[in-house]
Write a structure and sequence with these properties.
- By secondary structure, the protein is α/β, with parallel strands linked by helices.
- It has one domain: Collagenase (Catalytic Domain), CATH 3.40.390.10.
- Helix content is about 35%, strand content about 15%.
- It has seven helices and nine strands; from the N terminus they run βββαββαββααββααα.
- It has a seven-stranded mixed sheet, with helices on both faces. It has a two-stranded antiparallel sheet with strand order 2-3.
- β5, α2 and β6 form a beta-alpha-beta unit.
- α1 crosses α6, α1 packs across α7 and α3 packs across α4.
- It is globular, with a radius of gyration of 17 Å.
- It binds zinc ion (ZN).
- The site of zinc ion (ZN) has 6 residues, from β1 and α5.
Length: about 260
């Protein structure tokens, strides 16, 4: 039930992937994934990648302020502070998640920082009972309560971006005291949001951003989604039409995305 709150505008496009799936080469979840994590596919058709990308890169659960906009991404360094504030210490494991994203996504400039003041991404690892309080502290009572009433979130991410699509700040809340499955699913799901994949696609059988799935690792498909987003040809502020214009060339270079 992870949800995203967008604190500065975006476009909501209700695109749904309804094509017959042709993904292939299924393999078990990678080492380190939760025991019952689902297998993953490693090859996708261009249509499966394009539809997924257009569904996930535009829109979000809740917008606060601003006009609808397009593609959002970091254009400089994402400096990530991890605040280990829960009763179960998972800071080191979450930092490994960040390093994994930074390692495998070309052109994504992300690094950890120990200084909260220096960060433009703040990740709070908290217990479930402190979730509403932490959101209220970050966004104010009204926004936090409206959001919870609307979406009943488990973990969440708030993105603040400029009108040109550049992300200026992300705030991430991850629950650490409800077991490995919740933690790992939240960790990967919310980190995808934090880097600019704002939306969900509940009919898409490949992505962690399908709220009916529990995944818990960075799948080949989601890696492809972020690789497309951070390709220099995919510019912040792009509309869905503009994004569609550059997708064929990006997908061609991406090939079959087998890792
Ligand atoms: Zn979500």
């Amino acid at each position: 039930m992870m949800k995203i709150l967008t604190v500065a505008l975006v476009t909501i496009f209700g695109l749904c992937a309804t094509a017959a799936y042709a993904a292939s080469d299924r393999r078990p979840a990678p080492p380190g994934a939760p025991e019952d994590a689902p297998p993953e596919y490693t090859r996708f058709t261009p249509a499966e990648l394009e539809k997924g990308f257009l569904a996930l890169a535009f829109g979000s659960d809740l917008r606060v302020g601003g006009k609808p906009k397009g593609i959002r991404k970091f254009t400089g360094t994402a400096k990530i502070a991890v605040l280990d504030q829960g009763s179960v210490s998972r800071g080191d494991r979450y930092k490994a998640v960040v390093r994994e994203f930074a390692r495998v996504i070309p052109h994504l400039d992300a690094k950890l920082t120990d200084t909260e003041d220096d960060a433009n991404v703040t990740v709070r690892l908290i217990d479930e009972k402190n979730f509403l309080g932490a959101m209220e502290q970050a966004f104010g009572k009204q926004v936090a309560r409206d959001f919870v009433a609307k979406t009943d979130p488990q973990c969440m991410t708030s993105l603040k971006s400029r009108p040109d699509g550049t992300i200026v700040r992300a705030d991430v809340f991850i629950i650490v005291d409800q077991g490995d499955d919740v933690f790992f699913d939240c960790a990967y799901h919310e980190t995808l949001h934090a880097f600019g994949l704002s939306n969900h696609a509940d009919s898409n059988p490949f992505t962690t951003l399908n709220q009916t799935r529990t995944v818990g690792y960075l799948s080949v498909y989601d890696r492809a989604m972020l690789t497309i987003l951070y390709d220099p040809r995919m510019q912040p502020g792009f509309s869905a039409k503009e994004a569609s214009g550059v997708l064929p060339a990006i997908l061609k270079d991406l090939g079959n995305v087998v890792r």
